[in-house]
Amino acid sequence: MTDLGELYQQVILDHNRSPRNFKRLDSATRRAEGNNPLCGDRIQLYVQLDGDHISDIGFQMPQGSGCAISKASASLMTEAVKGKTPADAEALFQAFRDMLAGGATAPGKLAAFSGVRAFPSRIKCASLAWHALHAALQNTGDPVTTESAKDF
Ligand code: ZN
User: Which position among 62, 84, 88, 116 has the lowest Cβ density within 10 Å, counted as fewest Cβ atoms?
Assistant: First the structure.
């Protein structure tokens, strides 16, 4: 494994061990739930929109329902989009998806998931939180499952 690969693994382990924004947000203006039946990952996402930016965000995973990758990815996603506008957050989602599909590496710590594309069965673990974010921003209110997502 390369040094960069080890660094990425450290980031994922750290965010799995102590996930950021791992909280229920009672002030949330948007909510979404996501479900990845392939792995058993489940997420509840809370987004607080103030004006044109995401002022706070939190997520929960029922006990035992989130694998290391899905939890670390949700943690890094919340860090990446906090303070951003919905449009910027959607652009990050697109960059993240492009990376998982084999394209350019996503910015910042999101790059830690670049290695996941070598494990197709885990790609949906990494993208689950982002699909939930997309649903929350679209305010569909429908639960998302990664099986119905047409692509990553
Ligand atoms: Zn998973």
Answer: 62
Residue 70 CA, ligand 1 centroid: distance in Å:
5
For the chain, the domains span 3-143
Q: Do you know the residue count of the chain?
A: 152
- Bin 40: left if φ > 0, else alpha if -120 < ψ < 50, else beta: left
Q: pLDDT tens digits for 6-37? A: 889 999 999 999 999 999 999 999 999 999 99
Residues 68-99 pLDDT 10s: 999 999 999 999 999 999 999 999 999 999 99
Would you say domain 3-143 falls under CATH 3.65.10.10? no
Cα(141) to centroid(ligand 1), Å: 23
> How many angstroms is it from 38 CA to the middle of ligand 1?
8
Residues 6+ apart with CB under 8 A from 115: 5, 8, 9
The answer to whether the predicted template modeling score (pTM) of the entire model surpasses 0.85 is: yes
